[in-house]
Amino acid sequence: IAAAVDIWARGPAALPPPRQAQTPVLPVEGERNILITSALPYVNNVPHLGNIIGCVLSADTFARYCRLRNWNTLFVCGTDEYGTATETRALEEGLSPQELCDRYHAVHADVYAWFRISFDHFGRTTTPQQTRIAQDIFQRLLARGFLLQDTLEQLRCESCGRYLADRFVEGTCPFCGYAEARGDQCDKCGKLINAVELKNPQCKVCRGTPVVTPTQHLFLDLPKLEGRLEAWLERTLATGDWTANARHITRTWLRDGLKPRCITRDLTWGTPVPLDGFRDKVFYVWFDAPIGYLSITANYTDQWERWWKNPQQ
Question: How many other C-beta atoms lie within 10 A of the C-beta of residue 43?
Answer without folding.
Answer: 27
